[in-house]
Design brief:
The chain is mainly beta. The protein is built from no helices and 11 strands. It has a single domain, classed as Protocatechuate 3,4-Dioxygenase, subunit A. Strands 1, 2, 3, 4, 7, 8, 9, 10 and 11 form a 9-stranded mixed sheet that branches. The chain has a two-stranded antiparallel ribbon with strand order 5-6. Strand 2 and strand 3 form a beta hairpin.
Length: 166
């Protein structure tokens, strides 16, 4: 009879060989240039070091990567997306699709970042699938001119909503 080997993590060197591309090659003077900031947090509220957030959106032809610092902070310089058509033809609010990677994460965490100052956010068809009390885990708030903040919480109280799709 074979025994199952428990899951093992590799690390702490997830970002070894992965280059951060948090600037996304977006010119600072682009009319929709923004900075997305926040922290990647574990279930105890501690920052997750050595994490990677991959951000993508239709307007950019490549995936951006933002690496987390020792305290879990990240920053990505990108553009604020435009509304986009959904698979059912309804308009989706501007959002950024995100994949979260990190040590100890043995599966894909997929989520979205919406914007509190966008009128279409409240009516977004995907966001409508999320219970009212959990929607705030997906909505970035403006903290300065062209700067937004959203913490991503992997588990526990205030856990970010994760999807099987983005």
């Amino acid at each position: 009879m074979a025994l199952l080997t428990p899951f093992q993590t590799v690390g702490p060197f997830l970002t070894l060989g992965i280059n951060g591309d948090g600037d996304g090659h977006v010119p600072a003077d682009h009319e929709r240039a923004i900075t997305m900031t926040g922290r990647l947090l574990d279930g105890a509220g501690q920052g997750v070091p050595d994490g990677v957030l991959e951000l993508w959106q239709p307007e950019l032809p490549h995936v951006q990567r933002a690496l987390t610092g020792d305290d879990g902070t990240f920053a990505a310089h990108t553009i604020k997306p435009e509304p986009s058509p959904g698979p059912d033809g309804r308009v989706q609010a501007p959002h950024i699709a995100v994949r979260v990677l990190g040590r100890g994460i043995l599966t894909e965490y997929l989520t979205r970042i919406y914007f509190a100052d966008e009128l279409l956010t409240a009516a977004d068809p995907v966001l409508q699938l999320v219970p009212d009390e959990r929607r705030s885990t997906l909505i970035a708030t403006p903290i300065a001119a062209a700067t937004y903040r959203l913490d991503i919480v992997l588990q526990g109280e205030n856990e970010t909503v994760f999807f099987d799709f983005v």
